[in-house]
Write the structure tokens for this entry.
Amino acid sequence: MTTLTLPAPAKLNLFLHITGQRSDGYHELQTLFQFIDVCDQLSFTLTDDDQIALTPAIAGVAFESNLIVKAARLLEPYKSATSGVSIQLKKVLPMGGGIGGGSSDAATTLLALNQLWQCQLPLDKLAELGKTLGADVPIFVFGHAAYAEGIGEKLTQTTPETPYYVLLKPNCEVPTVQIFTDKYLTRDTPAIRISHALKLDGHNDCLEVVRRLYPEVDDAFIWLSQFGEAKLTGTGACLFMACSSKEEAERVKAAVPEKWQTWVCHGCNTSPAHDALNQWIAAQH
């Protein structure tokens, strides 16, 4: 049977400004998304039945609530193939880390099954479907570093620098909803132009709220700040720091206390999922 294996990369918010709140409760924001080469891995194997199977199950997440399954369900009405799919997930990205693991898994599922089920949907349509699963899904569907506005859906492709980063995960999960509903969250940061964004003049408006609510993040932020400019990605819990070289990143990683998960990773302006999918498509022809 046909199998397609693709990565689902993490993302970093190089900055995150909250510029307002809409009447429906959603926040207006400005942010700069970049991928990193730390990834989950998903393998999709076509099956003779019309079922969707996913292994292993994720603890605490019901099958139909899993974004991978939801993404597959969204494509069922469009499939030309009569086959089902068996999906194997190799989970690397931590949940509640602000690096978009669930959204990336959903996007990789849309990209893979669009090919395997011969749905022939353009990226715009896949992104539109993906947006119903989460505001970050379209960035992974389009697969290019981008400056985002609105609620994160207005994307402009960008090419920020691609340094090596140290990525650090404190021992906690931060629910996005908790941060966005906190009364102390700054919601009136003045909007900036994309030229300023690319100079990385920004900050993360969620940082102070997360540090106050999660002492573990505060500890890790203070620790990482002794080596350079520590930043929070998304609503956290993950922190990251750009380094001048891979060697510098390795040195910082070697000093990280054992209680925290840590990675050395490289910034990517095109998604590893798209790179792998394009290689697979080329090999089919």
Q: What stands out?
A: The CA atoms of residues 182 and 279 lie 44 Å apart. The longest strand covers residues 27-47. The two ends are 17 Å apart (CA to CA). The chain has ten helices and ten strands.
